[in-house]
Design brief:
This protein is an alpha+beta fold and about 150 residues long. It has one domain. A four-stranded antiparallel beta sheet has the order 1-2-3-4, with helices on one face.
Amino acid sequence: MKKYTSQQGFTLIEILVVIGMIALLAAIVLIAINPARQFAQGRNSQRTNDVGSILNAIGQYTADNKGVLPPAITTTETPIKTGGIDLCATLTPTYISSLPVDPSNGSPVTNCGASYDTGYTVSKDTNGRVTVCAPNAAESAIAGSTKYCITR
């Protein structure tokens, strides 16, 4: 008479099923987290804060100068940079410690003598309201995103 002993362990099919389920769960988690979209949202949050900071500095300058805007600001949307609207010497360090720079461009501008490009634009309308925009806020990782502007 032969004795049959049961073997302990997993079959190849069982192991493959478990690996398949783990792969499926990992794919679902990666889609839910979507790192590219998270980083894009983080950059847009920074742009929102930067645009507000620039507008606040312009507002403080205007208040200190009896309602007169910085002379470089025109009715045409122009980049805040060397060769565009150079607000560095006008606003820093009295109204803002350093000019913020778009997160995709680099670090804040502290040296007004150096060439710089903030990645932001500024303009005024006929009523003297100032608009600062972040054109790079139209991130491809965020569906339907457009440039971000604030007017005051």
